[in-house]
Amino acid sequence: MLYREAGQYKTGYTADMAVFPIAQDRAGIAIILAAVVLLPIVANDFMLQAVMIPFLVFALAAIGLNLLTGYTGLLSLGTGGFMGVGAYACYKLTTFFPEVNIVIWILVSGLFAAGVGVIFGLPSLRIKGFYLMVATLASQFFLQWCFNRVQWLYNYNASGAIEVPERYLFGWALTGARATPTVRYYVVLTIVVALTWIASNLVHGRIGRSWMAVRDMDIAAELMGIRLLPTKLLAFAVSSFYCGVAGALMVFLWYATGAEYNVFDINQSFYILSMIIIGGLGSVLGAFFGAALIYILPIALGFAVPALLAPFGLHIGADTLEHVRLIIIGALIIFFLIVEPHGLARLWQIGKHKLRMWPFPY
Amino acid sequence: MTNERERRQSNDIILAVEDVTLSFGGVRAITGVSFDIRKGEIRAIIGPNGAGKTSMLNVINGFYFPEEGRITFRGQTRQRMRPHVAASQGIARTFQNVALFKGMTTLDNIMVGRTLKMHKGLFWQIWRHGPALAEEVEHRKVAEEIIDFLEIQHIRKTPVGRLPYGLQKRVELGRALAMEPDLLLLDEPMAGMNLEEKEDMSRFIVDVNNQYGTTIALIEHDIGVVMDLSDRIVVLEYGRKIADGKPEVVKSDQRVIDAYLGVAH
Ligand SMILES: Nc1ncnc2c1ncn2[C@@H]1O[C@H](COP(=O)(O)OP(=O)(O)OP(=O)(O)O)[C@@H](O)[C@H]1O
Ligand SMILES: [Mg+2]
Predict the structure, then answer these.
(1) What CATH number does residue B251 fall under?
(2) Going by CATH, does the domain composed of A42-357 fall within 1.10.3470?
(3) Which end of chain A has fewer beta carbons closer than 10 Å to its terminal beta carbon, N or C?
(4) In whole angstroms, what is the distance from residue A89 CA to residue A81 CA?
(5) For the segment A200-225, what is each residue's pLDDT rounded down to a tens digit?
(6) What's the pTM?
(7) Domain ranges, residue B69
């Protein structure tokens, strides 16, 4: 009886079109925001560094891929590559122009990724589905090769890797060995919340509808006056922007000291793809569910399973645990692909709907 | 009702099709067909299965390029055109096999029909609040009018993939109406419907024609409906035009009776 829209009369279309039309949803969002903002008070460094920062970074990349694959229906295996473009662009920019604030470069590097995304998105006018996936796979391998072989990209470092220099924000160390997880967490959180809000705005307006129209029935979309190529390229651009920013955040604010080219390999692409499949194709919220399940669940299992087995005198090795993790994730992907292609986000919606009707079944 | 329509109709020709020929590989779908559509009329295109009716609509709105012939729409003559250009010039259509955006709600499908009339770009969409939202509200009002007109308020927020076929056809009409077209092409809007649904759909078509003055090209197999609704009829058979004129004239044409009306359905 608590979760109802009863009594909340919508005063106009503006209210009805709000992203969260129900007051309890808005309250929920406010509580979550307050919780994540206050989190560093109670959380230790491990919680921030190893759980929350990566979770937010992955969620951002998953939103990016979801805009392209879930909303526009263009299957991509180039996510890792586009993330890498963001990371390497950010590295080049901040070493060329160290005086400009790193946060600005992180966002600008997203634009470089967007540009690269548009170029690799060009074939999408002619090819669809499986063939487009192969084309994005080719872009993934090409970019990966560049990160490895084009020494200019990592400033000819002997290590062959990005070495993150020390950068500051309002006097606090933000990157490099001296940056604390708390400072990095707040910057990542701010960027991810802002970009999530923007993604949600886009998908709820004309542009989002055009993307979904192209996904669901491209010939009819064309007939409504939607031009396919610009619409698909915009999806590639915005998606790659998100992935690029996520890549830059990953190297500069999560790893914080450096990263090798193989961080952005094909496995990263599959990893993000599995997040949106489990979280929910075509849902911004689903990206967070997916990132939580794929990234945080295994960590939680790593603590919970040995703790549960310990009283029985059983021990489980780290590699066994890793296998268990892979089995669980594989099973989940198969389950969602077959049973609920709209993922956890859909289950969440159904749950909310049930709650709205509760205690009446209909 | 017919009188009312005749009063509003002019002799202005909104669309003229001249000597259009179209083939797929070796198969001729349309051979040298010419006809015209007057502003404000309901023009039926009939003919047996495979006669080339759908292909003709596809030529008119730019899905297919005819090998020969010309299309003149509102005074502009062309041989080929892209579908989105046809859309921007005021041609909308529905499909023989419903072509809705299945994952989107009824409301969103209709809102997509407003795309060409919405102009706030990426910059404004990013913030949503402000000009983009004002535009959204303005077009939402139009969408709601269409929803009221078609009596589909109860399915406003339902993903169309879950709707029964008859309602899907109705939503598809709504989506086309949202474009406020000058010429509306309807490809078998009543196929697979029961009597009641057909009556509703007929009423909507007549009302659209009367209230908004929209010119309509209608493909339909139900001869009763066609005779009732249309001002003039083109009859195609094996890709050729075999008759053209007012319903009474076409009805008594011997070639039409042989080719079409005679065969049982
Ligand atoms: N894309 C295509 N490729 C090849 N042949 C086609 C294609 N579209 C239509 N045809 C052929 O062109 C001819 C006309 O088809 P069309 O769909 O226009 O007929 P129709 O009058 O709409 O028939 P129906 O009443 O069954 O809808 C048919 O012989 C059909 O097989
Ligand atoms: Mg047909």
Answers:
(1) 3.40.50.300
(2) yes
(3) C
(4) 12
(5) 999 999 999 999 999 999 999 999 99
(6) 0.92
(7) 1-90+216-265
